[in-house]
Design a protein that fits this description.
By secondary structure, the protein is an all-beta fold. It has strands at residues 2-6, 13-18, 33-35, 38-44, 50-56, 61-62, 68-72, 83-84, 89-93, 99-103. It has no helices and ten strands. The chain starts with a strand and ends in a 7-residue tail after the last strand.
């Protein structure tokens, strides 16, 4: 699983980031969202294992080793897509209906 950015004119990949946390075996289901110069994505395995990440959007090629800003493993959606606001907050509702709010730049749970 992972996220990637593509040049809209040429269709060529600009950068990619791969979920490489051992033993997670995750799939990205909800759509990634962008804000604060970051891309936010959630992934899960269809069971209880899930995580969310924030990745810097600068760089080229494989940015897995250098562009991760934060990772969370609780109160996260697997299927629903998160919402990034202009006020720098990230909202999500997990698959059980529990809502969460995170400071987009830091990953701090509010």
């Amino acid at each position: 699983a992972g996220v990637a950015a593509y040049d809209p004119d040429s269709g060529k990949e600009r950068w990619s980031w791969t979920w490489s946390f051992p033993g997670e075996g995750l799939r990205v289901v909800g759509s990634p969202v962008a804000g604060e110069g970051l891309v936010f994505a959630t992934a899960g395995n269809g069971g209880g294992n899930r995580s969310a990440i924030a990745v810097r959007t600068n760089g080229t090629g494989d940015v897995t080793a250098k562009n991760l800003v934060w990772k969370k493993t609780r109160l996260l959606p697997y299927v629903p897509t998160m919402i990034a606001t202009q006020s720098g907050l990230l909202f999500g509702v997990d698959d059980r209906g529990v809502a969460s709010c995170i400071v987009a730049k830091t990953g701090e749970e509010l």
